[in-house]
Amino acid sequence: MTLLYSFLTLNILAFMITAYDKRLAITHKKRISEETLLTFTAVGGTIGSALAMYIFNHKTSKKYYLFKFFRIVFIQILIIGVLFYFDVFNEDYIIKSK
């Protein structure tokens, strides 16, 4: 359950940071770096970041940013695929590894 709450919190934070960066862009103030935005995406805030990008139309025309974003998404999908392939989420596997 802690993992679920961490995941939700991280995605809410990623959403808020991306939305805040859009606000800063509109008001021509100092922005949040792309590195920070992509770091939140990489550590698990992919859904929140993508949702904010879609809702606020933020960074959607920046091809280099989108390339980095989708590269992170692709790597995350590969990692999840490998974990499922090796049945890491199986209850017996978790018990044996402890």
Query: Spans with pLDDT under 50 lasting ≥5 residues?
Result: none
Outline, from the CA principal axes?
elongated
Please provide the ordered H/E string of secondary-structure elements: HHHH
> DSSP strand (E) fraction?
under 5%
**From the alpha-carbon coordinates, what is the Rg to the nearest angstrom?**
16 Å
Helix content: over 70%
Class of secondary structure makeup: mainly alpha
The biggest beta sheet is recorded as: none
Alpha-carbon distance between the two ends: 19 Å
**How many DSSP-defined strands?**
0
Total number of helices = 4
> Mean pLDDT, nearest integer?
92
Q: In a few lines, what is going on in this structure?
A:
The protein has helices at 2-26, 34-56, 63-85, 91-97. It is mainly α and 98 residues long.
Describe this structure in words.
With 98 residues, the protein is mostly helical. Helices cover 80% and strands 0% of the residues. The protein is built from 4 helices and no strands. The protein has helices at residues 2-26, 34-56, 63-85, 91-97. Helix 2 packs across helix 3. The longest helix is centred in the N-terminal third of the chain and has 25 residues, at 2-26.
Q: What attributes does this structure have?
A:
98 residues, mainly alpha, 80% helix
Fold topology:
Layout (H helix, E strand, L loop, with lengths): L1 H25 L7 H23 L6 H23 L5 H7 L1
